[in-house]
Amino acid sequence: MREPRRWRDKGWTAQVIKNDDDEGWAVAMIKDGEPEPALVGPWTMGRDKKNPKPLDANAFGTLVKTASEVIRRHEQQLHATLHKSLMVATEDADYKILLDIVPDEDDPYAWLSAQDAGNTELARVRVAPNYKLNQQNARAWIADDFRRPD
């Protein structure tokens, strides 16, 4: 579909819409199968200063690239929020401590795990999703022989 105000291609739909905040226009980029737009931004007025400029191949390509980047950044941020790690050096060994949050709607939880320098898992316990992973808590967990923290 390639209409002046609506293009659909490459798994995306660009829809030029009236901007409710002012007298201008906006464009919404919706990824196929998603209920909400990944990106909504201002759109250029046409020469008559009343109607929007029609979509074209170059604009659509740029919009797809920009919307894809927005989704990628969102996924990276979500991953960073759900998966945390830190290194702890003790007299006996160096450990990588990981916290992996499982955002279940009914029963969220997290896995706290420890790996040695060779990435071999030494311990894994279930903890609350709001467990605070920091040096102090990680050292206390190691000192307590990797028993489940309270």
Describe the structure.
The structure is a single chain. This protein has 150 residues and is an alpha+beta fold. It is 23% helix and 37% strand. The chain is built from 2 helices and 9 strands; from the N terminus they run βββββαββββα. It has helices at 57-82, 135-143, and strands spanning 2-3, 6-9, 12-18, 25-31, 39-43, 83-89, 94-102, 109-115, 121-127. The chain has a 5-stranded antiparallel beta sheet with strand order 1-2-3-4-5, covered by helices on one side. The protein has a 4-stranded antiparallel beta sheet with strand order 6-7-8-9. The longest helix is centred in the middle third of the chain and has 26 residues, at 57-82. The chain is elongated. The protein starts with a strand and ends in a 7-residue tail after the last helix. The model has no long low-confidence stretch (mean pLDDT 95).
Count of discrete alpha- or pi-helical segments spanning 4 or more residues: 2
Q: pLDDT average, as an integer?
A: 95
Please give the largest β-sheet: 5 strands, antiparallel
The rounded Rg comes to: 24 Å
**β-strand amount:** 35-45%
Q: How would you describe this structure in keywords?
A:
elongated; 5-stranded antiparallel beta sheet; alpha+beta; 2 helices; 150 residues
Task: Outline the secondary-structure elements.
Elements: E1 2-3, E2 6-9, E3 12-18, E4 25-31, E5 39-43, H1 57-82, E6 83-89, E7 94-102, E8 109-115, E9 121-127, H2 135-143
Antiparallel strand pairs: 1-2, 2-3, 3-4, 4-5, 6-7, 7-8, 8-9
